[in-house]
Amino acid sequence: MDTEHGQSKPIGRFAPTPSGRMHLGNIYASLLAWLSIRSANGTLLLRIEDLDERTRSGPWTSLLLDDLRWLGLYWEGEPVFQHDREELYRNAVERLTAAGLTYPCFCTRAELHAASAPHASDGTPVYAGTCRNLTPAEVAARSAVRPPATRLRVPVCESPEGTISFTDRVFGRQRQTLALDCGDFLIRRSDGVFAYQLAVVVDDAAMGVNEIVRGCDLLSSTPRQIYLQCLLGYDEPRYGHIPLLLAPDGRRLAKRDHDLDMEELRQRFGTAEHLLGWVAHLAGITPDDKPRSAEELVAFFSWDKLREHHENIVIRRASL
Ligand code: GLU
């Protein structure tokens, strides 16, 4: 059935990286992704972003599933694991390579972070194009020394297809010229691991995801993802980037903030309703922080409320 926006039924996803115990920032992002989908009668899927080997050791994935269930943020179907899907990513890289859009890159981390390189808004250096035009003989000689990463060429800045625009549900109209803002970007690392930008695009398309809700730290990655969708012939999902929760000193909440991780929060709040009621109020969804279940919060959710609060939210621990 088509919605008023001319899109099919909303399909969203949680896409956590299991690199530590879920913390307050993850709870907040998961709750909003869930409420957005539930309030539109859509379907929410779960994908574990465990491409990096370090995320596969340790108890984090099973704790994550347990924490989501405890919160009442359920998903449909079996969780999808990125480490099972390398074939899909390999095929996508092969398609891009066959179209002449990729090249091997031998630059070291130190070369990439050379002091003079301008940096994109997400902190990665704008790629200067060092390996863009290597000859086959140069590629062969360098490959014998170290395995290359794979980069995707972006259009030169004058070309219209290299400027990507989209409308975010919270942050409004966004525009980025890839050649100036990131340059040719990695789709596979030199250790063979497929890059986040590629995997996320391939997976969202394969899973039928048409609505993405995530932290605004990924707002500047979205144009790269839209460019990849365009090259691979995928539909562009709707994007809603939400403000970040910040620690009292203005830092992003991190896994090391143990007093705000689920182990601590489950003990401190006792029930999911107490915790979610407080998080929903922080997010500006409810007028007070009364205990409420995820299901009860559906009636309070609206994108208009999120748009009103589009500053990052500073957590005052004293208020916990
Ligand atoms: N796995 C990413 C994270 O945990 C989210 C990726 C996405 O939503 O596109 O930050």
TrEMBL record:
InterPro entries: aa-tRNA-synth_I_CS, Glu-Q_tRNA(Asp)_Synthase, Glu/Gln-tRNA-synth, Glu/Gln-tRNA-synth_Ib_cat-dom, GluQ/Sye, Rossmann-like_a/b/a_fold. A motif ('KMSKS' region) lies at residues 252-256. The gene is gluQ. ATP binds at K255. Binds 1 zinc ion per subunit. It holds the Pfam family tRNA-synt_1c. This is Glutamyl-Q tRNA(Asp) synthetase. GO terms for cellular component: cytosol. Keywords: Aminoacyl-tRNA synthetase, ATP-binding, Ligase, Metal-binding, Nucleotide-binding, Protein biosynthesis, Zinc. A motif ('HIGH' region) lies at residues 16-26. Catalyzes the tRNA-independent activation of glutamate in presence of ATP and the subsequent transfer of glutamate onto a tRNA(Asp). Glutamate is transferred on the 2-amino-5-(4,5-dihydroxy-2-cyclopenten-1-yl) moiety of the queuosine in the wobble position of the QUC anticodon. GO terms for molecular function: ATP binding; glutamate-tRNA ligase activity; zinc ion binding. Its EC number is 6.1.1.-. L-glutamate binds at R13, F14, A15, P16, T17, E49, Y196, R214. PROSITE patterns: AA_TRNA_LIGASE_I. Belongs to the class-I aminoacyl-tRNA synthetase family. GluQ subfamily. Its cofactor is Zn(2+). Zn(2+) binds at C105, C107, Y127, C131. The keyword Acyltransferase does not apply. Residues 13-287 form the Glutamyl/glutaminyl-tRNA synthetase class Ib catalytic domain. The keyword GTP-binding does not apply. GO terms for biological process: glutamyl-tRNA aminoacylation; tRNA modification.
